[in-house]
Design goal:
The protein is an alpha+beta fold and 381 residues long. The protein has helices spanning 3-15, 28-41, 49-72, 89-95, 144-159, 169-175, 195-205, 237-240, 253-256, 278-288, and strands spanning 77-79, 111-112, 124-125, 179-180, 185-186, 268-274, 291-295, 303-308, 322-334, 337-345, 357-361, 373-378. Strand 9 (322-334) and strand 10 form a beta hairpin.
Length: 381
């Protein structure tokens, strides 16, 4: 890379947060300069030079990965550097995503089935109607399922005309040891879980504290406020695997949970699932509010913007590893034609994707987005 091109790239990286350049450098000298800019941008500090050297090597590999993705997707979806760029794909899967699993099949009476009699609007979005709380960051923990479930409950609460409220994700992570042994499913704290079981936990517990009273600390990765998470009461080692071998009981659910701080009036009394028809899902999204969904997210690590439309052979719809919140839908016209999409709230922070959100192709069951759609039912009294 010539000095002139290097100077242009570094200027681009500084002004545009290392994303808008056409191609990332793959030579070590330039990549190191980009790494220094990236560390400052994302406040990355490593404990020693050995770790930093290893992280830089991973960072260099990820520059190549991002370049390859932008070529494969022909820039219809754009990928770029973000705070996850020092994680290998294996580390990303292990620390941020959940173990892969098939979508559960529920009893027939559990499903809400739509009549499909009306026509859908061209677009719809709950995130601009005071029904969706601000973007959060799960950090280095497989706790997305709890963020998805809480996001749905927050939306249901707001749909009742109540003030939009941030409820406690950490209470779910710390305290939810629910299981469905016949289905082989369980909630496993930082090792993953299911939103439908989280609803059942809230039903059993009798309520939720707010985020402010029981704040999130599981995935902070050693930052101030990090907690050493103890397994939830009832943690199923057979279904979840061994828990983290150390924890601080003073930070456990048994010590921290305060039922006197449960938010007044909030009660989950049941939950429902929506069938896989994406028109039905869109109808119920409009009718019910934001919905919990799950998908295969292994290619989303470096998503930056655009409609995510991977081929099925690289995004298995029967291999779910991430739970998110469906908030809207729309259509985009371009030189490539018109594409219908879902708008989805993620839990990887506001600097990821489209200000914490992403769009995914709608109507083809991409990455299993339509296979595990659920919502809590709240007491209306």
């Amino acid at each position: 890379m010539t000095f002139r091109i290097l100077a242009v790239f570094l200027l681009c990286a500084t002004i545009s947060q290392l994303i808008s350049c056409e191609k990332y450098p793959e030579d070590e000298e330039t990549a190191l300069k980009v790494f220094q800019i990236w560390k400052k941008e994302h406040n990355k500090v490593y404990r020693n030079h050995v770790i930093e050297s290893r992280k830089f090597n991973t960072f260099m590999e990820n520059l190549k990965v991002i370049n390859e993705l932008n070529v494969k997707f022909e820039e219809k979806t754009v990928f770029g550097l973000n705070h996850l760029a020092d994680l290998s794909q294996k580390e990303f899967s292990k620390t941020v995503l959940m173990p892969k699993r098939r979508a559960p099949i529920f009893e027939k009476e559990r499903y809400i089935r739509s009549s499909l009699s009306g026509s859908l609007p061209d677009s719809f979005d709950w995130s601009n109607q005071n029904k969706v709380t601000a973007i959060k960051d799960q950090g280095a923990a497989g706790s997305c399922w709890a963020f998805s479930a809480i996001g749905n409950i927050e939306g249901q609460w707001a749909m009742m005309g109540k003030p939009l409220t941030n409820f406690s994700v950490e209470q779910i992570v710390d305290c939810d040891g629910m299981e469905d042994v016949p289905k082989g499913e369980a909630d496993c704290g930082v090792f993953g879980g299911w939103p439908f079981l989280a609803y059942q936990y809230v039903m059993k517990a009798g309520g939720l504290e707010t985020w402010e009273d029981y704040w999130y600390c599981s995935g902070l990765g050693g930052a101030p406020g990090t907690c050493e998470v103890c397994p939830a009461p009832g943690y199923n080692t057979t279904l979840c695997g061994p828990p983290i071998p150390y924890c601080n009981m003073s930070q456990s659910c048994v010590t921290k949970l305060d039922v006197s701080k449960f938010h007044p009036g909030l009660k989950v009394v049941s939950w429902k699932a929506i069938d896989e028809n994406e028109t039905s899902i869109a109808e119920q999204l409009i009718k019910l509010g934001p919905l919990s969904v799950a998908l295969n997210a292994e290619l989303l690590q470096f998503y930056h913007h655009g409609i995510f439309d991977p081929p099925s052979f690289v995004c298995n719809p029967k291999s779910l590893d991430h739970a998110v919140l469906l908030v809207g839908f729309g259509s985009e016209k371009s030189i490539f034609g018109t594409k219908d999409y879902w708008k989805i709230k993620n839990s990887w922070g506001p600097k990821w994707g489209e200000k914490g959100y992403f769009r995914m192709l709608r109507g083809q069951g991409k990455c299993g987005i339509n296979t595990a759609v659920t919502t809590a039912i709240l007491d209306q009294n």
